[in-house]
Design goal:
With 114 residues, this protein is of the alpha+beta class. It has one domain. 42% of the residues lie in helices and 18% in strands. Strands 1-3-2 form a three-stranded antiparallel sheet. The longest helix is centred in the first third of the chain and has 14 residues. The protein is globular and about 45 Å long.
């Protein structure tokens, strides 16, 4: 969800959610700036004409922007067990990412409580 929203709209959406609900948890996908660059190169994204805008490099930034949010965990969206269903280049990428800090945050799920 988040990459497709401009940052200001995404923050407004999160603020509205936490202000209208008594409490709960949010889990959503997020990409780093580098991740958005890679996403823009993805043939599927290019073919659909979709645009990606919002990068979240530091999940704690959302706590500052939406004070009721409390960061719980960062879940990798790309796990080695998923590689079995991927092409060779994706398998290589998944194996490399645990060793390269910039790749670890390319795409992930962020979990917050409010």
């Amino acid at each position: 969800m988040t990459p497709y929203l401009p940052a200001d709209e995404g923050l407004r959406l999160l603020s509205r959610l936490v202000s209208h609900l008594a409490g709960g948890e949010l889990i959503f996908d997020a990409y780093s700036r580098f991740g958005l660059t890679l996403l823009r190169l993805n043939p599927t994204i290019k073919a659909t004409g979709a645009e990606v805008h919002w990068a979240i490099d530091d999940p704690h930034e959302l706590e500052l922007a939406v004070p009721k949010l409390r960061f719980i965990e960062d879940i990798s969206a790309y796990k080695p067990e998923h590689a079995a269903r991927m092409g060779w280049s994706a398998k290589l990428f998944v194996r490399l990412w645990k060793h390269i800090p910039a790749l670890r945050k390319v795409g992930r799920l962020l979990r917050y409580r409010f």
